[in-house]
């Protein structure tokens, strides 16, 4: 069996490979694709340079693959064309199963960030390739504990509950899908512990002993703040919109699917914060 992991040199991709190996998949049966292959050289897998713009390179890398973990691209605004290259290459290479990392409630949410995911999900379904959709909610790492301690927390999520889990949980869930049967055609909504940003700030304060608070700015002022600290206008608008959507429940996802795939409880937020403080 050969499993290909795209985006393997990013945080989630590397963790997915580590989870596959931990579940008993020989490193010799794993191919990691990415732009900086030196980042996974220590894992013992076959590392290949491949960008989402390179359809021919992707097809060559997918040849003979039984399963592909398709980690969504990070370049918002460019992902539909990039993802089309991945899907077309997988189809041409006769990949046996395509497992895609999507966004929460991608087919129904008004979250701007989900638009490209919704389009990609439809591409995959239309392709005829056997698939599994993993709709990952927010990574707890999206919130920097150190920055919160130094500057406080700011956003526009109000008292909306956001289901967060560490990347390692989502990676382990993906590895479970790739190494067990019965997942084809399923869409999993994956989320961990649900917290408000006020609660997250309070937990960071409790563990660090520092006065950490959350300040809700509203969508427009939050966007302006993000631009002010250096984010491009388009990116700031997307992030501010994510908080706006979170305030109405768009990022709340029950734990059931994630915990079923993990076979254990999702990692508590308190543990993630403790790990970040030790790092």
Q: Could you describe the 3D structure shown?
A:
With about 280 residues, the chain is an alpha/beta fold. It has a domain at about 5-135 and about 165-190 and about 255-265: Rossmann fold. Helices cover about 45% and strands about 15% of the residues. The protein has 11 helices and 12 strands. Strands 3-2-1-4-5-6-10 form a 7-stranded parallel sheet, sandwiched between helices. Strands 7-9-11 form a 3-stranded mixed sheet. It has a two-stranded parallel sheet with strand order 8-12. α2 packs parallel to α3 (about 80-90), α7 (about 195-210) packs across α11 (about 270-279) and α8 (about 220-230) packs antiparallel against α9 (about 235-245). The two termini are about 35 Å apart. The relative contact order is 0.13.
Key structural traits:
3-stranded mixed sheet, 279 residues, 11 helices, Rossmann fold, 7-stranded parallel sheet, alpha/beta
- Helix percent reads 40-55%
Mean pLDDT: 96
According to CATH, what is the class of the domain at 3-137 and 167-189 and 253-266? Alpha Beta
Largest sheet: 7 strands, parallel
Rg, please? 19 Å
Total strands: 12
Q: At the fourth CATH level, what is the homologous superfamily of the domain at 3-137 and 167-189 and 253-266?
A: NAD(P)-binding Rossmann-like Domain
CATH architecture of the domain at 3-137 and 167-189 and 253-266: 3-Layer(aba) Sandwich
Strand order of the largest sheet: 3-2-1-4-5-6-10
Write the element-wise H/E pattern from the N-terminal end onward.
EHEEHEHEHEEHEEHEEHEHHHH
Q: How much of the sequence is in beta strands?
A: 15-25%
Structural class: alpha/beta
CATH topology of the domain at 3-137 and 167-189 and 253-266, anyone?
Answer: Rossmann fold
**Unreliable runs:** none
End-to-end separation: 36 Å
Outline type:
globular
Protein name: NAD(P)H dehydrogenase (Quinone)
InterPro entries: NAD(P)-bd_dom_sf, NmrA-like, NmrA-type_oxidoreductase
Domain NmrA-like: 2-232
Organism: Paractinoplanes brasiliensis
